[in-house]
Give the backbone structure.
Amino acid sequence: MKKLLKGTLTGLLLVTLATPGFAENREGAVTVSPFVGGYLLNKNQREESRPMFGLRAGYNFDKHFGVEAMFGYSLTETKRSLGTAGSKETDLYRYGVDLLYHFMPDSNFVPFVAVGVGRTQSETPDDTSINYIYRAGLVNYGLGLKYFVAPDVALRGDVRHTLLVSDLGRTNLEYAVGLTFQFGGVRKAAALMALITEDEDTTKPTIIFTAPVNGATMVHVNQKTNVAFSEEMDTTTITPKTFTLQQGSTPVAGSVTATGSTATFTPANNFEKGKTYTAIVTTGAKDLAGNALANNYMWEFNAGLAADTTAPTVTFTSPVKGATAAPVNQKVNAAFSENMDPATLSGATFTVKQGSTPVAGKVSSSASTATFVPARDFEKGKSYTATVTTGTRDLAGNALANNYVWDFKAYEAPKVLGVLATLENSHFDFNSAAISENGKTILNHNVKSLKANPAMKLRIAGYTSAAGSEEYNQKLSERRAEAVKEYLVTTGGIGENRLSTIGYGEANPAKFEAVPSDKYSEAAYANMRVIIEIVAE
C-alpha cells in the first residue's frame, strides 16, 4: 500500500510540475488531495485516537466555491479501560462530502473554510469471529490552507470539528497535512498571457499616402504637407525631428501636428514658387506598439502655383442626405473636394446628433475623406443629423464656407422570407412615381393573394439607376415605394399596418452600370425597380 501511494504521488507531482501556468485556485479544475493526519476521538468512544491517512477528490465550480469528497482510514484499537480482553485492533473509516469556500483564490496563499456531512464506521472482531460494527452520521466544519508551490501543486493543511448526529455530545477533531493536485480548469492568467503574446503587434507601420504626392509639380505655395500611415501612431514620436522638410539642403522652419494615423507639417512661411522641396519621415516615427518605420520615407514636390484661396466643399456623404434606410451600424462618411488638414477634423468639427442629443463616437480622416464611427449602433427608426462645421480646413488653411448639415434615418432590415412581386421601370410613368396600367394589373393580381393570407406582412423597397444625382434618386425610390403602398391600401383594401416602405436610391444595384449617365442601358433598366417582399414580423 505504501509503495502504491508513493508511486502515485510521484507520478502526480511530475505531471503537475510539468504543466505551464500560474498559481491560482482555478475554476473548473478537478482536484486530488492525498493526506496524512490524526483523528482525535471523544473520550467516551470505545476506540483510541490514532493517525489517519486518506484521499480527497473535488471539483471547483468557480475560483471560490468547490465541492470535495473524502475517504480516511485509521488502524486503531479499543481502549484498554474496557479490559485486556476488550483491547482489540479496530478498523476506523471516515467518509463524507464537504463544500469549500476559498479566499484570495488568485494568489499562492489560499485559505478556505469547509462545511460538510459524512459517516464514520468502526469494525472490531469479537471472540466469535463476528465483527462488531458501529456506524454513525456526522456533520463537520473547519478551515484549511493551500499554498501553491507550482501552478498545479499546493501544500495543504486541514482542521475539522466533527459532531456525531446520533450523539451530539460526542465531538471529534481531525487534522491533516498533504498535497493538492489540480487538473484542467480555466487558466486565466496563462490564457491572458497567451493572448497577449499571440496578439502582440510586431508589424512595422508604413506610409500609405502623402499630400502633395511624390513628384507633384503644381503645388500651391501655401499648402501644408500631410502624411497618412497604415495604422495609428504614437504621436509623441512624430515631431519636427522625425518629420522634416527641406529646400535643397536647407531645413524649412515649421511645426508638426499628429493625430491618429496622420501627421501634418505646417511651414512657417509660404513655399518659394518654382523651388523643389523634399519631405522626410524618419524611422524615429513609431506606432502605438513601439514599431518603427522600416526605413526613412522621402518624397519630393515642386511649388508651382500661387496661394490656394478656394474654400473646400463637401462633395459626398454616406448616408446620403435624406436617406431613410441607413443601417443601424452605419459609419457616417463625408468626402471633400480636396485634401483636408486632419488636425481640423475631430469630434468638435464633425458631429452627429439624435435630436439635440450628441452621439458619442470617434472621428478619423485621411486625404479628402472623414469618418464618424458611433460608439454604439443607431436606434432603429430614429432620425439623426450630421454636421461638418467651418472649423474644418484644407491643407492651405481655407475653411468650409458654411456648416454642412444633412439628415438620415436609421433602419434595421427585417428578415425577408420571399418576393411577392417586382415592378419594373415600365410599370411606372417615365421619371415619375405614377403607376402605369400594366403596373396596376400586377398589383391587382397580388391583392387576391394578400387577402387570402391576412397574416402576410410586406416591405415595399424602391430602387433607381445611377443616372441623376444621389439625392434625386433617393427621393424617387421612396416616392415609388410609397405610391405602391398607397395603391394597395386605397384600391386593394389592404391594411396599412401590414405594409412598410423603404427607398434605397441607387444603392444595391441589380446590375453594374458601366456608364452611369446612360439611363437607357440594360443595366439602368434592371436597376429601376420596386420589389414587394414578404417579411417576418
